[in-house]
Amino acid sequence: MHPIFLRIGSLAEIHAATATMPLERGRRVIARTGRGIELGEVIGPCRDPNASVKSQVTVVRGTTDEDELLIRRLNRHKREAIQLCRTALAEAGSKACLLDIDQIFDGGTLLMHFLGPADDIATSITQEIAKKYESIVRSRHFAKLMQDGCGPDCGTAEGGGCGTSCSGCAVAAACK
After folding, report:
1. Which of 25, 53, 143, 165 has the CB geometry, 3.0–4.6 Å to 106, for a possible disulfide?
2. Confidence band (pLDDT; 50, 70, 90) for 51?
3. 47 CB contacts (<8 Å, ≥6 apart)?
């Protein structure tokens, strides 16, 4: 295993992570975190061997051209969700201030970051926006393939690695 640091989320949180191969700085990767499957960027190697042991973040694989297309689509919908939410908050008279939204790679999970506490109006509006976003994106099936490939732990050491059992795997090309 190769311990590395990843930058994840709109707040650019830095996490210690493990990867099955060395990865260069700036490489975009798909990582499994406590929140789900997320996009991350490699910051560099982690020289503290204990940091990656404590980490619950693992690199699934580097991004593919198909991932980058999906990411652009998700970002477009994310920008629309941010604008819609900010407009709805202002129209409703809420004092809540939406800073940004993190979207998990499944496309159906939004995590909204507010400056200060969110009031009841903001909570109601964000729930409505999240439902609308999920109905538009509908990427859960694709995300399941990204996570599982042709079976649980596909493309990981636990799953036997890519190319060991099926050449038609949805993620096999990314694991090479």
Report:
1. 143
2. low
3. 3
Distance (Å) of CA 140 to CA 92, 105, 136, 150: 31, 9, 11, 15
The pLDDT of residue 168 is 46
Q: What's the whole-number mean pLDDT along residues 62-72?
A: 90
Three-state helix/strand/coil letters over the chain: CEEEEEEECCCCEEEEEEECCCCCCCCEEEEEECCEEEEEEEEEECCCHHHHHHCCCEEEEECCHHHHHHHHHHHHHHHHHHHHHHHHHHHHCCCCEEEEEEECCCCCCEEEEEECCCCHHHHHHHHHHHHHHHHHHCCHHHHHHHHHCCCCCCCCCCCCCCCCCCCCCCCHHHHC
The β-bridge partners of 152 are none
* Start-to-end C-alpha separation, the chain: 16
Domain coordinates in residue numbering, the chain: 1-63, 67-138
Q: Looking up tokens 């008279």, which residue turns up?
A: 93
Query: pTM, whole model, 2 decimals?
Result: 0.71
